Amino acid sequence: MSAVVPTPEAIRALSEAPDTGPVVMLNLLKFKPGGAESYAKYGRAVLKIIEAMGGKVIYSGPVEATVVGDRKWDAMVLVHIRRERRS
To answer: What predicted TM-score, i.e. pTM, was given to this entire model?
Structure first.
């Protein structure tokens, strides 16, 4: 299965979009052998950054089923992030 990677243009468009409030980010995860453990370690470190920015993890857990698409995901994470107001 190939990775789903955002383009630099998509990241730029999101970062330059007008501030319309908070963002909820969906991470769909597919792990290689040993990858779940590595992601858990990464997640613990990133959680501190998210919380310091006023964000929070809404859900983190396994993907039991999908309704659209044929990919088999191992886990998903929903993260609520407050965007900084620009003046």
So the answer is: 0.71
Q: What is the pLDDT of residues 17-67, one digit of tens each?
A: 887 778 898 999 999 999 999 999 999 999 998 898 889 999 999 998 888
Amino acid at 58: I
CATH topology of domain 8-81: Alpha-Beta Plaits (3.30.70)
Q: In angstroms, rounded to a whole number, what is the distance separating the alpha carbons of residues 7 and 22?
A: 22
CA separation for the pair 24, 48 (Å, rounded) = 17
Domain range summary for the chain, segments of one domain joined by + = 8-81
